[in-house]
Amino acid sequence: MSNLSRAELPASLEDLFGLTGRVAVVTGGASGIGLGIAQVLADAGATVVLADRDHAEAARQVDILSAAGHDAHAVALDVTDEVSVVAACAEVESLGMPWLLVNNAALQDREPLLAATASEWDRIHAVNARGAFLMTRESARAMVAAGRGGRIVNIASNALRGGLIKGLVSYASSKGAMAAMSLATAYELAEHSITVNTILPGAVITPGAINAKGPLSA
User: Distance of alpha carbon 150 from its chain centroid, rounded?
Assistant: First the structure.
């Protein structure tokens, strides 16, 4: 147990883990979990980049963050499009070399196994796994070039630990691919002082979860 008195406790997130001068990129940052992460990072002093295919909503959220005194920016990003990923990462570098990447953009649409289609499998994996790979590759290149280390955080799912409902075959497998990618990239990037970690959130009521297609029964 800590012996710190209340007066000695950090007064803010910035005091607890200051990120002033650090550029933090959050994919899918315009809403849901991504927006919540971006808000916390902004409170910690980071220059936050909301990278999202819904650029208009990302820009609206940036206006709100900026009005609160934060350094925030919106970047258009389609993680399924390699050209878009490369362009978005180049735009981020014009704001400052990225130090933190949060791979949060995801689809959770559900399809029962016996009715599942290869096209839906491919669509889910294109966002959740391939998109995270592309963003990791481009961001890691920039981090290595900057020589200041960095952090990569992959938002997977508690579905990998059994928090399942019907219809998550494509979703869970894509998040499993992300978790495996975390291990491999952590090994390769350790020599550059870049850490890679995976978070397994449970059920969160977000616009993406509410609007996801497919069965909801356990």
Answer: 14
Q: What are phi and psi of 75, to 5 degrees?
A: -130, 130
DSSP one-letter string for 191-204: GGTEEEEEE-----
CA 191 to chain centre: 23
Q: Which of 171, 175, 178, 194 is catalytic?
A: 171
Quick one: which of 96, 86, 84 has its CA closest to 49?
Answer: 96
Give the three-state DSSP class for 178.
Answer: helix
Q: What is the pLDDT of residues 161-198, one digit of tens each?
A: 886 778 889 999 999 999 999 999 999 999 999 999 99
pTM above the 0.85 mark?
yes
CB 105 within 8 A of CB 79: yes
Do residues 202 and 158 make contact, with C-beta atoms less than 8 angstroms apart? yes
171 is catalytic: yes
Type of residue numbered 8: E
Quote the radius of gyration of the chain (alpha carbons, Å). Answer: 18
Residue closest to 27 by CA, chosen among 112, 122, 133, 184: 133
